[in-house]
Amino acid sequence: MSHCPTNCPTISGMIINFDISFGTIVVLTRTQCHIYCVNAGLDNPISIDLKEDSVYNIVLGPSNLAVIGWNGLRVYSYQGKYLSSPNYQFTSSSKICSHSITIGDNVLAIVDDSDAKVVRLFSCENGEPLEKRIGKITHEINVKQIYLSQMTSANEQYLLMIDAKENLFIRPVIAKYYGQEEECKSFKLGTHIKTAAWDEKGSMVCCLEESRAIFYYFPTAPFVDVDLLKETRETIDLGETIKCAKVESMCHNRCVVALQNESIIHVPISEGHSLLNELASVGAWQKCIRLCQFRNNPTMWAVLALEGIRQDELAAAESGLLAIKAVEKLEHLRSIRKMPKGEVRSRRLSIRTRSFVEFISLLILSSLSTRTA
Asked: How far, in Å, CA of 203 to CA of 35, rounded?
């Protein structure tokens, strides 16, 4: 962010950096890191004493923050508790860009400054590398920016990557498809992408492409049904002023974009998507359907279809597919609904996202399982 809040208490020492996200203001000086909870007021910040004066940047996550310095980085909770120092030493003599580091609830990701094609993963809790458990993330060309999904579960975590050709990719960091552990693969979401951000309270994504803002209301669609990805995308033309802009944050029904002249603009998000995500996350499917009927927004119906397929709530998925007139998928789904819930039905649901070899093997397994039953 480029403007410090005027109602912040006086801070001793030179301010090196600050950021505002997740309802929290974090101010970094050479010797201290001050954490202000917006909802609790700004009078009593939590202060962390930094042992070294070599810090120069901070990166905020949903519940943790990373303090970056010349000698490495350290992870703290917003309560001021020290969590870990990831076992990673920067090799570059220049400052590490904040977009090369991203932090979630449990995972910290870093673009390797000795090989920008590699993204290193670490546990926020103990700082241990996660390559042995999750695997190393390697891209075809250099990675310039990374963003971890902010709303996560024990089985799901996704990473956005913008590479040197300005292509936007998404891939799972931790993922289970319908109960089956799978090899993590990357999917290209867009091209000519300058910057991106995840929704702080949901799973939506906003990115900037030349003079347009692009919203992906279900960016993980490639891992459910890639054909429906375009149905969940919305584009807004913002003009020439955003050519050198960046997405600062995205929360609920608005997206904050910082322009090159240090001013900001608020880009509205189609109403209803945040509420739809909240209702789907708690399984309130009838309310989801009524909300989509009230808004009658095609992108919301597509999101409902994908959420229904992902969570094996096929009645909701059928309502969404019917509304967007996806006839072939609707017929396929209705045939699946006649099957008993379980592994066979889940496997058939995931057929469209697999390779041809996997498709054949799944059909054979499904046929054998059905005959056994």
From this structure: 26
